[in-house]
Amino acid sequence: IGDCYMVTSIPSSDLEHDGCGRVCRFALDLMKAVQAFNNTAPQHGHIQLRVGIACGQVVAGVVGTKRFLYDMWGDAVNVAARMEQRSLPGRIQTT
User: Fold this and answer.
1) What is the mean pLDDT of residues 5-26?
2) How far is 33 from 19, CA to CA, in rounded Å?
């Protein structure tokens, strides 16, 4: 727990249908950055990522009364989480 980073893409009027593409490019860039870090700073240990990507509707909001957290819920979130959990390290799984 605590090893997850969630990303979402909100369609804009200019690129309404490119939200999934932007998330995929971000995942690829993130994998390249981690690989570069591993190659240039081996003294810090080897980092491996697993990425799960799913497209769909979500509900999002702020929860909490003392410590505010932004969270998202929905089938797309659950599917992406399962894709990441079942993935091999260093891989990107998409639906």
Assistant:
1) 75
2) 21
